[in-house]
Amino acid sequence: MKIHVNAVSHSGNIREKNEDRIYVSKCETETDPSEYKIDRLFADTGNYSFAVFDGMGGLAFGDKAAVIARQCLIDADNSMDRIDIKKCISDMNNAVVSLKRSERQRTGSTLVWLNIYDDEFILANIGDSRGYLYRNGSLKQQSEDHTEAEMLRRINEDTSNSLQDKLIISEKSEHVLTQHLGIENSDFMIEPYICKGQLEDADVFLLCSDGLTDMLSDNVIETILSDNDYSLKDKCDRLLEIALKKGGRDNISIILVKIEL
Length: 261
Known about the structure:
With about 260 residues, the protein is of the alpha+beta class.
């Protein structure tokens, strides 16, 4: 099996600081993770992790929350055993809670994480950073948005209320998180969304912060990923280029992972 990875993180057009962090197995010391750019080919089977952490903008120490959560993944990934996904995410949450307590400031981070072990994948997320799978010409979101807007959509879908009684979904609610790293266990236990599956040849996974998906629709992303004239690096660069041209209002982080079996 071969795994081709291309990743980039950019501060965007407006933000002064990049509060996103990216993690790619075996590459954590190669470059400044707040200005991340990597093109790597892994040619052996094993245990690989790829993740995007979006330090919550507007909150103090958002970048520190992302850094601390990322370090928990580094520590787990450096062990010889297969990673316990739920335990690692719990450790991340506890670490960010400890930061919040020590600094006496509100802080937090999102997470979307792809773990590949031999021919299987696990994708987990907390917050609104997304994970997609492009397979057989179709792009499908594998993560679940933990936002107020998504919660309201599910309530509307699951009830038999008339159209007049449907809950109103505001634009602001699209960015109000219902879950993130840094929530006290006494408030409620976070529940990461986790999906699993078998890898197939030519699978392409996209992990990204909302700085990308706020600027590009799923249809635009699918069109770029389906263009066979582009290399994986070209596709990553193109996604970033278009997001910046459309405004680049937030930090933008992208990881593309292509599987060859």
